[in-house]
Amino acid sequence: MTQLALHGARSARTWPLFVVVALAGFVTTLDNTVVTVALPTIRADLGAGLAALEWVATGYIMTFAGLMLAGGRLADVYGRRRVLVAGLVTFTGASLGAGLATTVQLLVAARLVQGVGAALILPATLAVLAGKDERQRSAGVAVWMASGAGALALGPVVGGYLSQHAHWTWVFLINVPVGAAVIALALAVVPEGRERGAAR
Question: What is the mean pLDDT of residues 86-92?
Answer without folding.
Answer: 97
